[in-house]
Specification:
Layout (H helix, E strand, L loop, with lengths): L11 E3 L2 E6 L2 E6 L9 H19 L2 H13 L6 H12 L1
Antiparallel strand pairs: 1-2, 2-3
Helix pairs in contact: 1-3, 2-3
Length: about 90
């Protein structure tokens, strides 16, 4: 009979600490809230992204299917949505 040890690790945020596991070892760090400087460039990119998503939501099913065909023709294993967003963001 073979016995294996059970490793119990804590993951998540608790009492201002972030608990995670990296390469099989428990890691504990202080929680640092994310910052959002809202720079002009960042706000412009967010607006471009929002426009891309809004465009996609307005597409017909045929248009959405065409983006999947484009993704497949490029050899990418991505949904049409991600292919469209990637193309839009690269060109705007």
């Amino acid at each position: 009979m073979e016995m294996s040890s059970i490793n119990l690790f804590v993951r998540g945020l608790w009492k201002g600490k972030v608990y995670s596991v990296v390469k099989g070892k428990q890691v504990i760090k202080n929680y640092t809230p994310p910052t959002d400087p809202q720079t002009a460039g960042q706000l412009v990119r967010r607006a471009v992204f929002a426009t891309a998503v809004s465009n996609w939501l307005g597409f017909s099913q045929a248009q959405k299917n065409q983006w999947k065909v484009i993704a497949d023709s490029k050899g990418k294993n991505l949904p049409g949505y991600q292919t469209y967003l990637s193309d839009y963001l690269k060109n705007n």
